[in-house]
């Protein structure tokens, strides 16, 4: 495997590149989480087998629709499925057999090799919110997102210790034409951050642009041999695979780039109101989608996705951080592991309109559940607000701080001699205190997770300082981070080539806003 | 076992009692949680054995202090411990052997038999915050708690569907003399609610008053044969058992009333900074305390308690909802189950000064962890603020609403025919929606946990209604609940006897405020 950073340096060559790298400030990024705790599992063997059997029944009897995609229908027919109109009925066992060529884990390379991530196994990679058309902050209120907002979120993600991934559409830059935004978004991820990122899925041609831009950033040969993007391919639940998303998947799979194949389910609307029924549908949909990716290119990297939430049966609104969503996610993790596939689910989900207590309860419920469910790739891990309509600046840094707690929990319990601390217990004895003892002195710096945001000051101090709530503390942190941001070094030749690619592409087509 | 409510009716006799019961409004209370999900366990067999071995070493080599309690020292000496001054060294295996007579679960009777709770097994009983000297609400701010506040909290706990227990010192009524407040607090629990409650532990004589008042409420014979109080006995960690708490425990154990024997640990100050070291100390302390309860009366009901949090090493402030506290709680649950004892831990813990996002993250981390750790009795399950200094009215109903989510999660996954929902998947098919299908119609009312507080309205509606955050929604709920409160029926003869007991006791001693 080639070393991207070495090649990058040698390619652009010259003193400018070296100077740029030497003078850049480096912000600390934690390694992706490698769990040293078990997964939490809610389904027993009988329930797992019932769901797996039923999912095969769904694929065989009911089937799935591949919409406006004759090539996909032909591929399925050739693979042995029964195709009738756009309906694809997959004989029992075929989808699972096709899925077997998908890797159980894969490396997604970042342009900074230290920030490459391994997705799968016992790992958890955290990426920010994806898709909101609006942004919000404490002083500017709720408004349509712009490219300026987008860049700010990329910078915040770059500076967050606990985010391993720059994400994709952290918000929709609505001031840029729809058919050109992917170019600016990718350009921002590539130049303002050095973490791994996602490609465009809104049109097959934009997926191809994403691959081509990665060719500029990493070198074409490197991209042919390595995975440098993980992109989000939603299934239109129930059981519908549209031509846009499948078109993007076809481009990515062909190029050995990773896709999250992800049912998008508001339970009660796009799936049954029961947990087991929803899991059955999720499994059937994921198996069909991943099987299709392997028809495109056996061995293409994929992720078993499950975006699942429940519904408020009175208003029809989606609800977040609910117990039913947790049960489904725990179960989906089990199903993914039995297929030997990386698992994507959970996030900073909430329905609240503000980054208030409701938002935090809902988010914490979902984040904790995600860690314990064995999620390998958590999209939306920070910044999500109002059912995903809004990317919130304050909540972005609030959630990102909580992601540190997940890292701490995942460490599990060390019971070596230092962990046992018998010397400390002997030294202190009944009625003493541990603050000054040798064991505490030796271990206190790394013993406890440390927040960069939350307030632990005495009441009087806190009150004197203005009695600020979490949102106000977060607002100050957003401003501080953005004001100290420094761009990571990038070979100027590559930066120029990227800009030229974007300019050329933009000039080649008229603006489209729909 | 006698039926308390039958005897109560027959005792007070007369039409007044019957009329009172007939006209009372009944607020729905959920049955205590009976988990249908596994426990989450972070310690492997090797770690468990290391910790158990080390805890025996602590008891044998270092020992524990029983302070100003010659009778306790005599009991320990007789049981085979080595006593030197106030230090009690317990030979390997002795404490665990003594603990074996403690029951693995017990029933705590409420005066309304439908609200009696079984503590232990796979159950989880939820009780409100305990101990804050201050209260806070959105409009009155932070202030010393009074008896009026105390009564309001008892009413809110009575009206909360998801609280199974009325708790004890829901706040400190600082306007009542220290030596008399227990009488008013118990009286409030007994008359304003019909849920189970806790007794006083601030002096052995007050524990005896608690037992005597229960004799009035339940009938003396009933109290002799049954457990009607679960009270909180803290250990002064490290390894110190003071005469006040032990005096209360002696009274309760003698009378077959339950005690939570609970190390009170801010990690890094009262225990080592490591998880395994803290668990070692917790286990040693609990074993010593529970062994002592069984020396008083073999078979006395007890709970393995663990109040454990971490510390901000910069300021020395306790921190809440942290990953280290979670790991300790998961581990302590495993240790308690291996001893066959009910387990108390977790709660609505937070360090925040306001019921804001910080408070909710911290609380949700702790509540979720408590459910998954196998906690059987969760004190502080709602209303805790500012490290336990404050009982917050809005947070009380906010947290209480989240307790409903724990009930939902504990249900686990039903995979019977209705749960599988294959008919629904067949009926709807690819591209359809489930809102109107037969399975949804039949199941939607009970399919999803339903909040009584959180906002899921469309943005525009929410904004038109004032754009309220969670705290403001909660403030309105507090007011609505208190304005619709109705006292549960109580035989007037018992109410009079209770009032007479309190008056007589109060008249028998001068006020004390220290």
TrEMBL record, chains A, B:
Assigned EC number: 2.1.1.-
Gene Ontology MF terms in the entry: methyltransferase activity
Family: Belongs to the trimethylamine methyltransferase family.
GO biological process: methanogenesis; methylation
Superkingdom, natural source: Bacteria
Alphabetized InterPro entries for the sequence: MttB-like_sf, MTTB_MeTrfase
Top EC class for this record: transferase
Hydrolase among keywords: no
Transmembrane annotation, as ranges: none
Keywords tagged on the record: Methyltransferase, Transferase
Organism, scientific name: Cribrihabitans marinus
Name this polypeptide is given: Methyltransferase
Pfam family, one: MTTB
């Amino acid at each position: 495997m080639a070393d991207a950073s070495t090649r990058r340096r040698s390619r652009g060559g010259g003193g400018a590149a070296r100077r740029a790298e030497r003078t850049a400030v480096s912000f600390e990024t934690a390694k992706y989480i490698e769990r040293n705790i078990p997964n939490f599992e809610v389904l027993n063997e009988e329930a797992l087998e019932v769901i797996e059997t039923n999912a095969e029944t769904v694929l065989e009897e009911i089937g799935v629709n591949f919409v406006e995609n004759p090539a996909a229908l032909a591929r399925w027919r050739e693979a042995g499925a029964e195709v009738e109109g756009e309906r694809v009925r997959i004989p029992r066992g075929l989808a699972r057999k096709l899925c077997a060529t998908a890797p159980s884990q894969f490396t997604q390379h970042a342009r900074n090799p230290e920030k490459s991530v391994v997705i799968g196994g016992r790992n958890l990679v955290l990426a920010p919110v994806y898709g909101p058309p609006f942004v919000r902050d404490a002083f500017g209120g709720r408004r349509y997102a712009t490219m300026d907002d987008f860049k700010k979120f990329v910078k915040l993600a770059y500076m967050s210790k606990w985010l391993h991934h720059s994400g994709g559409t952290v918000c929709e830059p609505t001031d840029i034409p729809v058919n050109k935004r992917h170019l600016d978004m990718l350009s921002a991820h590539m130049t303002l951050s050095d973490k791994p990122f996602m490609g465009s899925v809104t049109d097959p041609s934009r997926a191809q642009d994403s691959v081509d831009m990665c060719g500029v950033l990493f070198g074409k040969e490197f991209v042919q041999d390595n995975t440098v993007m993980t992109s989000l391919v939603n299934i239109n639940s129930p059981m519908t695979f549209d031509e846009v998303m499948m078109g993007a998947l076809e481009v990515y799979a062909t190029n050995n780039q990773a896709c999250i194949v992800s049912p998008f389910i508001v339970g009660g609307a796009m799936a049954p109101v029961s947990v087991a029924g929803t899991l059955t549908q999720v499994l059937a949909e994921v198996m069909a989608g991943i099987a299709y990716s392997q028809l495109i290119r056996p061995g293409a990297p994929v992720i078993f996705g499950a975006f699942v939430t429940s519904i408020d049966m009175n208003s029809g609104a989606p609800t977040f951080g609910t117990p039913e969503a947790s049960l489904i996610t725990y179960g989906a993790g089990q199903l993914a592991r039995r297929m030997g596939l990386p698992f994507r689910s959970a996030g900073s989900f909430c329905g609240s309109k503000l980054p208030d207590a409701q938002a935090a309860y809902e988010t914490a419920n979902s984040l904790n559940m995600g860690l314990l469910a064995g999620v390998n790739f958590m999209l939306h891990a920070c910044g999500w607000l109002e059912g995903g309509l809004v990317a919130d600046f304050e909540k972005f840094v609030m959630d990102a701080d909580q992601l540190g707690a997940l890292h701490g929990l995942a460490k599990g319990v060390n019971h070596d001699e230092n962990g046992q601390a018998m010397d400390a217990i002997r030294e202190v004895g009944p009625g003493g205190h541990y603050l000054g003892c040798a064991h505490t002195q030796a271990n206190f710096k790394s013993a406890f997770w440390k927040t960069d945001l939350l307030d632990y000051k005495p009441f009087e101090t806190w009150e004197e300082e203005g009695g600020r709530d979490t949102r106000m503390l977060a607002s100050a942190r957003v401003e501080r981070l953005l004001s100290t941001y420094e761009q990571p070094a990038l070979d100027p030749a590559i930066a120029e080539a990227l800009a030229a690619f974007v300019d050329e592409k933009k000039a080649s087509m008229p603006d489209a806003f729909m």
